[in-house]
Amino acid sequence: MSFIELIGWSLVSAAAACGITVWWANLALSQLRRSMQQEVEHWKGEAARARDMATYLQHEVAIWSRGAKQGREDLMAMMPLLVAAHEQLQGSKAADPADAQA
Predict the structure, then answer these.
(1) Which alpha helices (H) appear in the chain, and where do they start and end?
(2) How far apart are CA 102 and CA 98, in angstroms?
(3) Cα four-point dihedral sign 97, 100, 101, 102
(4) Tens of pLDDT along 27-43?
(5) What CA–CA distance (Å, rounded) separates 19 from 8?
(6) Which of the 8 DSSP states describes residue 1?
(7) ∠ Cα 59 61 66 (to 5°)
(8) How far apart are CA 21 and CA 15, in angstroms?
(9) pTM for this predicted structure
(10) Contacts 24+ apart (CB under 8 A), 86-93
């Protein structure tokens, strides 16, 4: 084998090795891109579910707040009746011992 042939085959093998390396790198990059795309889609789905849950909870908080406000208003409306009933009960208890002594 002459020196020229040796240099020629060396260049051919270097080009083949470079081509195989580039092919392998492209394959690895395409797999990584596919994996990253799947992960992006996963997190987009998670974000959508989180937004849905936040909307639901916001609605629930609004409903709970309205219910609590209504409950406070109902209690404030009943308060005079409760106070009157309590005073009446206290008055009847105070009158009972006097009736028992007489």
Answers:
(1) 3-101
(2) 6
(3) positive
(4) 999 999 999 999 999 99
(5) 16
(6) -
(7) 100
(8) 10
(9) 0.52
(10) none
Tokens of 36: 């990253």
Q: What are the tokens at 7?
A: 């240099």
Whole-number pLDDT of residue 43: 98
Tokens found for residue 101: 């002594």
Please name the residue that has the structure tokens 């206290």: 90
Q: Give the tens place of pLDDT for each residue, 62-101.
A: 999 999 999 889 889 999 988 988 888 888 777 666 555 5
Type of residue at 97? P
CA distance linking residue 50 with residue 44, whole number of Å: 10
71 alpha carbon, distance to own chain's centre:
30
As a dihedral over the C-alpha atoms of residue 23, residue 28, residue 34, residue 39, rounded to 10 degrees, the angle is: -160
